[in-house]
Amino acid sequence: MQFPLFQLFFADLPIFTSGFWIERKRAGGRANQAMDWSNSPIVRRIAHFFDGYLEADSLCTPEEMKRLGEHKYSCVDNSFLDELIMKRWWEYAVTWCPMWMAPNLITLIGLIINLATILILSAFSYTATEPAPSWAYLQAALGLFLYQTLDAIDGKQARRTGSSSPLGELFDHGCDSMTQVFVTMNICYAMQLGMVYNGVMFVSIVSVVLFYAAHWSTYCCGQLRFSRFDVTEAQMTVIGVLLTTALFGTSIWEWNILLGFQFRHLVVMSAGLATLYQLSGHIDTILSQGAGKNGSTIAGTSVMFPLFPLLMVIVPFCMIYSNSETTIYDDNITLFCLCFGAVGAKATNRLVIAHMSKSELRLWDWIYVGPFAMLVNQYYLPNAIDEFKLLVVATIYCYASLLIYCTAVCRQFCEHLNINCFILGPRYPNGKPHQIQQGQEKTQIVTRSRAARGRI
Q1: For residue 78, how many other CB atoms are within 10 A of its CB?
Q2: Which candidate in 58, 86, 266, 293 could, as Cys together with 408 as Cys, close a disulfide (CB 3.0–4.6 Å)?
């Protein structure tokens, strides 16, 4: 079966490499017969579809892979907490990691811990209106702190083990984009923002926009920049909110401050002002510090073009949420925001890859099929399909699209750099397969040439 992209994605699955062995009774005795499932018509159809999907949506061009491999990480860190104490803590924490542990494995463990703790908390506060036990907030705070630590020490582990590569930066930013929605939901659960009109949706949009804008400015100036109040400070603020709720209960956020405004309103407005300040810095970088020709992006494209993928993420979800005649999305706000977060994460991942490969950003992405399906069902089919069922299907589809994209790009990058994602050492110790074949052909040519000279 000649489906190279399909085989690239599933290269390690025995069903598509060596086939299954089954036993069948034959006249005169039993015999083993190889059954190659790759020749099955159904598998061939699936492989053909999957091959086309990967090529259209998930794979980088050879030119992009070449530039990705040549990418050099550039960062300016002015974070207040990083300089004050966190860098010393991270330098100590990395010494606990064994030398055999791959940096990307550390990042993945942090992602899983953060995901597990937020799922536990969401089980008690699914609509962001129910109070959860104190221990649920404590474990969420601990999970976020562990994720922050593991996310910070992966680069240090790479330098310790001599395994630094552009894949590490790509994998790190990919995990950060996926956890962005989890961190945001922690705030919503702790402060019960489901009780605030459009509160959960507002905080989620602000989070996605701010994270996207940070990488948008990087795509323009070619350098990732952290301000005095940035990711570390925001994460510690979320941890503080979770600990406050664990100690004093959710009622603390209901305190009336002034003119009917509650404590939660004050905190959200303060966060909004801080976001505007940080966003203004990104906008200034985007509009005035383009590293390309005539102030363009590092890919030589317009600095305003990344705005359109961001609008493709935000506008459909705002229309769906605001136009619903029922409370289905408020009653399932966790699921709705997870779907929104998946679409935002993939848009950000494409922006990161465009920056690292100095390539033009794509406008269309097949993950948009999820929210567009909900939009069409709501506006043009008067909810012919049950909104909740469609939301579940759309969320599953969006996360499948996101995971396929991330997996395909990482595997393609590993093949290009001849490295493993979660294991130290080369992917092919003796060289890439095509290099081995080329080497064998050269050896045969040299041998024939020497034989010819010997005969002469």
Answers
A1: 12
A2: 58
| Separation of alpha carbons 58 and 307, rounded Å | 21
Q: How far is the C-alpha of 283 from the C-alpha of 449, rounded, in Å? A: 64
Strand 261-262 to 256-258 pairing? antiparallel
| 344 closest CA partner among 162, 115, 177 | 177
Q: Enter the pTM of the model.
A: 0.86
434 is catalytic: no
Amino acid at 426: P
**What number of H helices and E strands is found in the chain?**
17, 6
Question: How far is Cα 67 from Cα 61, in angstroms, rounded to an integer?
Answer: 10
Structure tokens at 419: 């490295």
The gap between the terminal CA atoms of the chain, to the nearest Å, is 46
Q: Which residues of 103-124 are buried (b: 16+ CB within 10 A; e: fewer)?
A: bbbbbbebbebbeebbeebbee
- Contact indicator for 398, 369 with CB cutoff of 8 Å: no
Of 71, 173, 215, 434, which one is the catalytic site residue?
A: 173
Q: Could you report the per-residue pLDDT of 418-442, keeping only the tens digit for each?
A: 989 999 888 777 766 554 444 444 3
Spatial separation of the C-alpha atoms in residues 285 and 298, rounded to whole Å: 13
Q: Are 347 and 216 in contact (CB under 8 A)?
A: no
Do the beta carbons of residue 205 and residue 58 sit within 8 Å?
Answer: no
The DSSP letter of residue 77 is E
pLDDT tens-digit profile of 240-278? 999 999 999 999 998 888 777 888 988 888 888 888 888
Which amino acid is residue 322, in one-letter code?
Answer: S
Decide: 102 and 427 in contact? Cβ < 8 Å. no
